[in-house]
Task: structure prediction
Amino acid sequence: MTTAIATPPAVSDAPSSGVKAARLLRSEWTKLVTVRSTLWSLLLLVILTPGLSALLTWLNEHNWAKADPSQRTNITDDPTSFILGTGFAFGQLTICVLGVLVMAGEYSTGSIRSSLLAVPKRTPMLVAKCTVFAALVFVFGELVAFPSFLIGAKILHNHVVVSLSDPGVFRAVIGGGLYLAVLGLFALAIGALVRHTAGAITGVIAFVLVLAPLAQLLPGSLGKHVHAYLPSEAGHLIAQAHQAKGDLLSPWQGFGVFCLWTALLLGLAAWLLNRRDA
Amino acid sequence: MIEARDLSKRYGDKLAVDHLSFTVQPGTVTGFLGPNGAGKSTTMRLLLGLDRPDTGSATIDGRRYRDLAEPLRVVGALLEARAVHSGRTAYNNLLVLAQSQGLPRKRVDEVIELVGLGSVAKKRVKGFSLGMGQRLGIAAALLGNPDVLILDEPVNGLDPEAILWIRNLLKRLASEGRTVFVSSHLMNEMAVTADHLIVIGRGKLMADCTTEEFIERSSEKSVLVKSPDVARLAELITADGGVIAQADGDEVTVRNLAAPRIGHLAASAGIELHELAPQAASLEEAFMELTRGSAEYEGSIGGAPIPASAPPSSAGASAA
Result:
């Protein structure tokens, strides 16, 4: 305790915006990778997504003869969408939870206060957090999308042949990672708005799992439109090889709608972050 | 130097900080006193840009906190509520802050050693005691080697050894020419740590003076008088303008009359004195007196009348 208080790191000249951005990204990266929730969420993602893709694809292949013809058509029409959809339906929940924790966790532990003392202009902190988190989720998203697809395609090859070189397939598999990255940001935005872990997770899950079936209960074309433009319903279209019959939006249109939802929520989160007391 | 000008902050219908203005000078330890709920933490949060003031402004070395490019190199802060991620290790919590300011890893090791957390640096903060948490908070405050320190209740939850350590640390930081602004509700702690005091009650400034001056100003002096003929002496004292604040057997506590005058009254009347002792008020008493004022009389300093043990009418009756 007799150590000198300082070997003063002399106050540097006002750092350039590039230097500041690099520092913020490094700091947010450290935040992200030094908590266990990140490790556990990504581990679950990596196990659940290809695992469930393989399991559900295999179950369908195994019962091919007994399956409903419409179910078989569903698979042969767009096997990519089927393979990715099965695994991601579960795997995406880990990203929903992690996205919320990345932001709401700062509030529940109180670390938001040190974060804002270090970066009192708050928007750059949010931008850096989003950048680092989306990049990490995108990489892991691709790490699960490609194996999921390749395993599923192999299981189905007796009934339908699909490869990465087929039209739209490569984009759809890449799209799996893109979808997860934007979903992560969507959850992060809700976490920033709600600032309460349990509440925000409930909110995100409601958006992703509850609203879609509810919207389908709405009568006629209204229900169809509302359903099509819901964030995760529109977003996961990017993981289809081509627009399915009866879908209102193309893969890229759907993804655009999802990005728009996310951008709006993040914009609102940034506005509130600057206005609210921490 | 810290400057608060006309700061106000309202939460719902409660005015937590009420048009508060003060400056905190470098080179001394400035204590920030007030009872619980007086607005100390809120004021500090306003200084640090965590909350937005409803009126007024706060600057540090002439700049708003939000305008500081590398704030941790200018201001070190310890907040009352824990402000680190409990799932992260002590080292990583500090590393996150260091990286955001472009400070080297070496500096993290230095402050960890400085606060004596070397053996638990790689442990998650979740298991830390209150005292270890406070040390980590102080490490975070010192990380950027700042010229200004704003510490909210730094000795909270610490054992006596650690309190002594903090006290010496604060004095050393001030002696190096830094601005040290430290809040506490422990009057006696401030008496031995702070050179200057800023006292608030219900969000309003009650006193802004040196510690000595504070005791002097805000406490009415009293004299303890012991005499076998105390009743007759009490009459003389009252007739001369003194106030009997307390009576207990052959002892009375007198206010508003100095000891030499009481001695003179006793001598002229031939009354035997066994004790004649001026009572110096402690910081604790001065503070309680001031804050009682803030609670009941809307903030007059030292002007609140202390009711005598017996109302004047009944005192007159007993004398008759």
